[in-house]
Structure to design on (342 residues):
């Protein structure tokens, strides 16, 4: 049995459609009236959008119901599904904690509430009956002010027992006017030993080379091998890993055909740049991580050797995997031990 590491999954897009619809039916009369039948909700929730910005608007639908009171409900079901249906051994869950605090509070009050959200997510993720190693990545957001993003970095530093890294989200086409500010925040994070990733080079309008040196992993990054392959040697030298989320690019209109990813994988493997295959928003896509691997194999975008390399890369580049080996190697060694020594 293959065991997987998921390095790029958003809390806001992780809730599968059926569970979200049931929640609305029980607790949100407005949305229950809007979607009285499940098929219409699933079609709305999982259909492809024309742009990344349009796609990201769906996150607001979920962020509004992922409160301090409801997060344990959603996370328990997330962990259960990840263990039973996806064979996940490791999961990094990313989100912007500020956007899970009450909108009616002042900015200062919402910042103060973020620590509570991180603690709730951390405790809810520790489900003993479904033993997955979990950690959180806190997302700075392109549409939040600097002081809030700075507070998110500080929170990552303070909550090391739950948080393994910071990220930058909100649409990579919205960073341009704030690059100096964002670089300063990344420098601040790295000076405190915080791991870093960031959504960049996902879309043609999100190519910001000045951010690349500050990232240990690159969220998506497909435009580098597609449009800027001259950057690949620098990525290989820095040991950076791309977090590739195949279904996302069809859902956001970034790619027209999955087959376009073959160039991404071929050029990265040739240059020695690691790739971790991820889901991004498993609920929005109604897709699970093993299917992403299977789909790439079915369309001959990768072969089995490359698939295994991506599986190994995910554990090697995981920020909080506590072992020196991926679980498959550990399990193989255990099964080969003589019975008398067990």
């Amino acid at each position: 049995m293959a065991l997987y590491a998921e390095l790029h999954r958003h809390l806001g897009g992780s809730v599968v459609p059926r569970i979200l619809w049931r929640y609305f039916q029980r607790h949100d009369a407005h949305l229950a009236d809007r979607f009285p039948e499940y098929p219409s909700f699933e079609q709305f929730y999982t259909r492809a959008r024309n742009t990344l910005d349009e796609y990201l608007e769906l996150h607001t639908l979920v962020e509004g119901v992922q409160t301090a009171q409801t997060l344990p409900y959603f996370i328990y079901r997330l962990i259960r599904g990840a263990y039973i249906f996806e064979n996940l051994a490791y999961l990094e869950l990313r989100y912007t904690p500020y956007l899970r605090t009450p909108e009616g509070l002042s900015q200062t009050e919402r910042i103060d509430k973020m620590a509570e959200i991180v603690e709730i997510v951390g405790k809810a993720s520790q489900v003993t009956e479904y033993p997955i190693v979990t950690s959180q990545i806190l997302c700075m957001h392109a549409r939040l002010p600097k002081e809030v993003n700075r507070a998110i970095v500080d929170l990552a530093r303070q909550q090391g027992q739950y948080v393994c890294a910071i990220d930058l989200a909100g649409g990579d086409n919205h960073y341009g006017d704030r690059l100096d500010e964002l670089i300063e925040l990344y420098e601040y994070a790295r000076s405190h030993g915080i791991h870093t990733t960031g959504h960049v080079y996902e879309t043609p309008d999100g190519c910001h080379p000045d951010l690349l040196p500050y990232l240990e992993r690159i969220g998506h990054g497909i435009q580098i091998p597609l449009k800027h392959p001259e950057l690949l040697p620098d990525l290989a030298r820095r040991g950076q890993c791309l977090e590739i989320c195949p279904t996302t690019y069809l859902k956001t209109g970034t790619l027209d055909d999955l087959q376009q990813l073959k160039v991404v994988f071929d050029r990265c493997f040739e240059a020695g740049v690691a790739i971790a295959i991820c889901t991004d928003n498993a609920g929005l896509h109604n897709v699970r991580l093993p299917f992403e691997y299977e789909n790439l194999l079915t369309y001959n975008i990768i072969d089995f050797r490359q698939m295994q390399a991506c599986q190994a890369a995910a554990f090697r580049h995981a920020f909080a995997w506590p072992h020196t080996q991926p679980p498959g190697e550990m399990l193989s060694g255990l099964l080969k031990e003589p019975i008398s020594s067990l």
In short: The mean pLDDT is 93. The first helix runs from residue 17 to 27. The CA atoms of residues 160 and 194 lie 9 Å apart.
